[in-house]
Design a protein that fits this description.
By secondary structure, the chain is an alpha+beta fold. The protein has 8 helices and 15 strands. The longest helix is centred in the middle third of the chain and has 22 residues.
Amino acid sequence: MGSPEFAVPALRALHAAGHAIAAVYCKPPRPAGRGQRETPCPVHRAALDLGLPVRTPARLRRDAAEHAGFAALDLDAAVVAAYGLILPAPMLEAPRRGCLNIHASLLPRWRGAAPIQAAILAGDAVSGITIMQMEEGLDTGPMLLRGEVPIGPRTTTPDLHDALAELGARLAPEALALNPPAVPQPEAGVTYAPKLTKADGRLDWRQDAAALDRRVRALNPWPGTFFETGGEAIRVLAAEPATGGGTPGTVLDSEATIACGRGALRLTRLQRPGRGPLPAADFLRGFPLPPGMALG
């Protein structure tokens, strides 16, 4: 049970391990592209490639027919990874070994919707995967297996996403094979990673350069980070801390170095609305940010 690219390695690993996959659940196809054609999600496409049956219910909570259909699969276990729909109690209880979630953090840190981004935003030195026995609470279930992934000073969300997806693909078959004892999550150290919005991407130059650097690395490609100038929202696709200082938001030099609350941030890849992304040097030839200019 999963939908985005994060869940594809786990699906392929379970299939390669020889498990009899009774069904693959994912979110329904959605309109995409210029023609708004109905497009299946990455897990849907991977399941079709593997010749597996796919189910795409639009809702689950109060749909007794879906609950009955799930129970009729007579499952030993369900493996869940970023599915996108909340599983109601009748479905959580239907498999003999319950529902196992591949969660992209070292629980109880970063329960919730955006644990990968939250770890980078907070400056964590390590993230990981927790294989968790699901219950009705938000990522509160007992833990079966954990594995760690380091977060380096230049790690981006795509970097960490891919590393955690591969780790989850290794740990999920291991959890099914070993059936380790479930360990309750500690009560101390609980943090939450709420769902992100576009507003989270606005760069506040009053913050430290290190915090803004983490925000750029954490929130690209979505929701993206940006600042406003000349009536346009300019996307910042990549940046790095730099030396310098001044009034926050002031352009310091001809290389798009911006003063922050502490230190400075050099913008290295930018994009105007409706245009393609460009290295900063190319961007500045068509859209100058002269020294002394104040950015919003």
